[in-house]
Backbone:
């Protein structure tokens, strides 16, 4: 084994936007699996907004990435050496491999994926963490009922696209908030959303009034900031807000902007509830099966935005915060 | 009938703190009941933080008081003339009589109260709207479980005192946040709270860390602002925040301060839910019976802060926003 393992290690806590100098990009020989271990060739690295939070010091739902550690990331790859009877060379697996070419595993933190079910990148998107987040966040926390008006922000992203399509499957009226005419056209024309609001060119408050005349029953929030406030102002009686993320606030150097309109919760007897996808790990299997069925039936479409080359990591990550990706953002590290 | 009816009519939408000039104080002969009507002599006027909201223009859970209208207020009084077979002269009733000496009713918006069950002022406090708000907000929205840590702000007020005592009855550990050493001593020594935090002299963040080492399971918020943020920062996994009011924000001339720490909802899978007491009207009877039982057993104590004279209304109302009352604030209008 003379393959080299390139790694992005976090070496500084970013202030504001992430920059290349927050990482060290190193190269060393790929490790050799010990007893019970497998060596995985990383093929795709998942880029997710939550990664920004993991770079910060402080108590959260998961410990921060330590300085000097390989940056945490979801990955899909192929077993290239195995001392573990449960995995054979050639198996495809998903897990938390990190931003690197090769990773060792004891087999407990990886899951075999079936590439006949869907292309490998889909296991980092709709059939991976973002899809699970959308599925459980919408259905378990948002609890949409047939006929409800569901609004989702970050609607053209990996989570938002699934939230909107699953809400449609459940018989809801769906309004997506996204940035720019291309994304807005795509979620309506291709994904079947009922309407789209372009927050970059439209007054979101006004557009929500127009598209949600009976108010918003479920608002799935990926962005925070002014858009959360606009949704709060339009909540229907007993409406539910799912707090999934706050991408507009992750790179703040000033304190997070709290939602000034939170007293709308009182007026409308509404609720705002946080969710973390890891809480539903036991049920991922059932969700993957149901979503794969919807995909097969053409009711759930996926799109991946794939950038080539591990070495592009810091700049590719920034695409998320600039709103430059459509669908699930991934880095392709190597051919399968 | 030559009695005079004094009335406070709202004539201006207050900017910031309410002032006397926002009202017109008039006097006219008391009205005469028509067919089916009763005339009520108002004996006590309830002063509640929510009144500040009713003075503002705009969509809320209840229409605003119109300019020129008698200021809306809860009242307890005595029937002095009746053309309604359901009410006899001498009956005691509670209702929305407004800030005035006399009020007509068709009998549908008033409830007979039994002065043998409790003194009349208690029907505007613990056995009235504030008590109902505390009871249903805590039990139905907060859903405390035995052993939970419950924190309540405005802890020495009409709602807070009941929230804390009912939480104790339900087997919770209770921490109250109030202003000043007298209130803090009172809620611990007399009402049986486990601890009190004086927000005027203590660092609330630090004190919550100290008094809630396992985090806050239920936070009942009457105040908003920085105290809401401090509670958010200490929420336990799956904690519940009940949004009942935001007295710190009602007289703002700048936008409401949204809770900067709202992403703690995500980290802790916690929720923040608004409540309006009117939604539970059908169940007030059951709550009054249970609470009266606790009062009789000495497990639920009440305290009223009674100011004499209808004419003091604007200044007495301000006591709420200055935190000058302990227990339920009322105006005594006339002797029973």
Residues:
């Amino acid at each position: 084994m003379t393959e080299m393992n390139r790694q992005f290690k976090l070496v500084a806590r970013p202030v504001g936007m992430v920059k290349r100098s927050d990482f060290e990009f190193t190269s060393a020989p790929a490790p050799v699996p010990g007893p019970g271990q497998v060596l995985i060739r990383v093929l795709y690295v998942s880029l997710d907004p939550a990664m920004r939070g993991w770079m910060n010091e402080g108590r959260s739902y998961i410990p921060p990435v330590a300085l000097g550690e390989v940056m945490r990331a979801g990955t899909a790859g192929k077993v290239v050496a195995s001392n573990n009877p449960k995995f054979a060379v050639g198996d495809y697996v998903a897990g938390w491999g990190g931003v690197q070419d090769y990773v060792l595993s004891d087999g407990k933190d990886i899951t075999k994926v079936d590439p006949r079910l869907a292309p490998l990148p889909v296991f980092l998107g709709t059939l991976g963490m973002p899809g699970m987040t959308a599925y459980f966040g919408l259905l378990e926390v948002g609890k949409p009922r047939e006929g409800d008006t569901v609004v989702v922000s970050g609607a053209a992203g990996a989570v938002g696209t699934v939230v909107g399509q699953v809400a449609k499957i459940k018989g809801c009226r769906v309004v997506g908030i996204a940035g720019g005419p291309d994304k807005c056209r795509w979620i309506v024309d291709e994904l079947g959303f009922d309407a789209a609001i372009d927050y970059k060119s439209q007054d979101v408050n006004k557009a929500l009034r127009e598209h949600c005349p009976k108010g918003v029953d479920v608002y799935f929030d990926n962005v925070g900031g002014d858009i959360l406030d606009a949704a709060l102002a339009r909540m229907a009686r007993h409406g539910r807000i799912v707090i999934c993320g706050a991408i507009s606030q992750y790179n703040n150097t000033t304190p997070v902007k709290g939602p000034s309109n939170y007293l709308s919760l009182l007026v409308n007897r509404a609720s705002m509830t946080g969710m973390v996808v890891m809480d539903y790990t036991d049920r991922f299997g059932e969700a993957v099966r149901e979503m794969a069925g919807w995909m097969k039936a053409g009711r759930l479409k996926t799109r991946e935005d794939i950038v080539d080359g591990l070495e592009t990591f810091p700049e590719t990550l920034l695409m998320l915060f600039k709103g430059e990706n459509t669908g699930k953002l991934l880095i392709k590290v190597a051919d399968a």
Chain B has a mean pLDDT of 96.
